[in-house]
Amino acid sequence: MILPINLYFFAFLLLLVLYFAASKAEEEYTYTKGSRKGPENWWRLNPKWKVCGSGKLQSPINLMDNRVKELPQLGELNGDYKPAPAVLKNMDYYIMVQWKGDAGQLHINGTYYKLIQCHWHIPSEHTLNGLKFDLELHALHKNSKGYAAVIGILYTIGSSDPLLSKLFNAIKSIGDKDIDLGVINPGDIKFGSGKYYRYVGSLTSPPCTEGVVWKIMKKAGTVSRKQLSALKGVVHHHRHGFEESARPTQELNGRQVWLYNPMENGKPN
């Protein structure tokens, strides 16, 4: 009787493995437009992702200067950041820096949002007056209730980005394992303090949760071709032939986009 019992046991384990493997495969998504698991079909892949298809506050969007309203009362980006231990992760579609300690916070309308992580999308997800950029960084913050605020920075090809310069060797060797980066200063992101767009949107990947406060810097940063190539070359989707990790822009659906324009001599710049 021992052999049949063992066979049944191992057969049961095999079924469990196959079930969870199938479940995981069903939840995977891609950025390949028109594919079964592409952006248009994310909402079909998991019941928890329904808002990816039915939501009215989805991100990213096309930021049109002729449709924004200036609102000086928004004030400058009020961030209080500090160096903290961090780890580099390969998230399959993008590279992420996740802080393990207290890396500081962002202050919005009396609420503090703790900096959690930053990651890069290739090419940009948001567009500016219809123009797509070479790269986009998202710095994700969360408040005590779990609501998110994201600062987005668009990049064009040019001089090297300071943060990516410090991470370059780690990015090149990331593979499938996390890399302990030691202490990383969020200030190296160079958020800036000038003009930015603000609107309410969503996460740009499943589950596409809405209610996210977005702040997109109007002035683009620069990234070198070497740095961009490094980011592309190590993510899994690139090795499998997928070139992009950017969700297409979503409908505005009547939302207002605000522009913070610093005042100079009592007048907007």
From TrEMBL:
It is found in: Plastid, Chloroplast stroma. It catalyses: hydrogencarbonate + H(+) = CO2 + H2O. One of its GO terms (cellular component) is chloroplast stroma. Its cofactor is Zn(2+). Keywords: Lyase, Metal-binding, Signal, Zinc. Its EC number is 4.2.1.1. Belongs to the alpha-class carbonic anhydrase family. Belongs to the alpha-carbonic anhydrase family. This is Carbonic anhydrase. It comes from Psophocarpus tetragonolobus.
